[in-house]
Amino acid sequence: PRTYAPLATWDGLFQRMDRALHLYRRFAPRPLRRAAMDAAARWIIERQENDGCWGGIQPPAVYSLIALHLLGYDLGHPVMRAGLESLDRFAVWREDTAPGPDGLPAGPAPVRMVEACQSPVWDTCLAAIALADAGLPPDHPALVKAADWMLGEEITRTGDWAVRRPGLAPGGWAFEFHNDNYPDIDDTAEVVLALRRVAHPDPDRLDAAVDRAVTWTLGMQSGDGAWAAFDADNTSTLPNRLPFCDFGEVVDPPSADVTAHVVEMLAAEGRAHDPRTRRGIAWLLDRQEPDGSWFGRWGTNYVYGTGSVLPALAAAGIPASHPAVRRAVAWLESVQNDDGGWGEDQRSYQDPGTWAGRGASTPSQTAWALMALLAAGERGGKAVERGIAHLVRTQLPDGTWDEPHFTGTGFPWDFSINYHLYRHVFPLTALGRYLYGEPFAPGTP
């Protein structure tokens, strides 16, 4: 027999509702059920992107194709064909060793791996920032070309975020090649920071895009003063308790890393003293962990959160002597590895007491810690010098770094990401800021 949680709990209530709806399915009026399924199909089809995908990532594409096929769409239907073709663009082919009938290697054979997501906008803006921090001239052709591409990816149509912000004009960027329904605030903030590092030949075009992005981002501030990735005030915990929500997160609460990137961007735009920026700063100061770190929602984990917040506070004019900054510096120094680097295991999402700030040193996490310490005025300090020495020592002959560990996060603990560019762009950013200083003087554009 099925075991239910107590009826007085949300889990118990939803479990019984789920059971009741399964029974109702046997007796539901067919026209009503068909109308509901047709409405669901329309909703899915309306959100298919121009490239055939959904949400710009593989999981919703797979689920959408399964749902439409169950609703009677055959594989030759244009919607299905476009969706299946989009999945091929997530495929990565490589030579690997295929097993023989006895399970032993039988020789090389092509292997196809399907990526969960691709991050061209995120990668491009971070690479542009890294190159600028490393001393590339603002009018360098590579930076201008990157800015051109980013400007071409701006999303100026209304998406599902408008349900909560119906009067807000669009203007932002997504994470992926095609995801017009769901631009995200994190990418938008970093793209603006990247664009401002480029001497573009059409400054009016760039200024207009940035102005739209700033307006949209400010409009997406949640009621508590912080920012989430895709939505505003999407904080209810009830959807996660639905019986069919058995993987990852289905809500989008504000996070320290996204809020920090927005604060840093607004400060760079001369809005450090805007009341909305100050509310974001107050939220960050209120969410500091007792040990001095910040939780990292979209990167692993407390090292990422702290590496995001300290540069933002510095850009917004919070002095290095502020108690929150000193606590964060002390925490970073306390978790530095013996080899001079920093690392954090994904298990910190489940067991922060054991794993927060603990793990094998990685290039990206070492760089995040260095970016935080440099922003806090620790250039020349022992921890910074050891961290820089670690990056220099571990750099490969071709100028890159090796990072087999997963330091990116989709859903904490459920879905981890190994960003292949993180191991390069963040160390370059940290080294550049060590040599040339911060990109913006605190509190000024």
Question: Count the strands?
Answer: 4
CATH class of the largest domain: Mainly Alpha
CATH topology category name of the largest domain: Glycosyltransferase
| % residues in beta strands | 5-15%
Query: What's the assembly state of these chains?
Result: single chain
Q: What percent of residues adopt helix (DSSP H or I)?
A: 40-55%
- The average pLDDT value, as a whole number, equals 93
Q: What's the structural blueprint in terms of helices and strands?
A:
Elements: H1 10-25, H2 30-46, H3 58-70, H4 78-88, E1 91-99, E2 105-114, H5 120-133, H6 141-152, H7 185-195, H8 203-219, H9 256-268, H10 275-286, H11 302-315, H12 323-334, H13 352-355, H14 363-375, H15 382-394, E3 408-411, E4 415-417, H16 422-436
Antiparallel strand pairs: 1-2, 3-4
Helix pairs in contact: 3-4, 5-6, 5-7, 5-16, 7-8, 7-9, 9-10, 9-11, 11-14, 14-15, 14-16
Question: Can you describe what's shown?
Answer:
The chain folds into two domains: 10-88, no CATH class; 120-436, Glycosyltransferase. Helices cover 47% and strands 6% of the residues. It has helices at 10-25, 30-46, 58-70, 78-88, 120-133, 141-152, 185-195, 203-219, 256-268, 275-286, 302-315, 323-334, 352-355, 363-375, 382-394, 422-436; strands at residues 91-99, 105-114, 408-411, 415-417. Helix 9 (256-268) runs antiparallel to helix 10 (275-286), helix 9 runs parallel beside helix 11 and helix 11 (302-315) packs parallel to helix 14 (363-375). The chain is globular and about 75 Å long. The protein starts with 9 loop residues before the first helix and ends in a 9-residue tail after the last helix. The model is unreliable at 441-445 (pLDDT under 50).
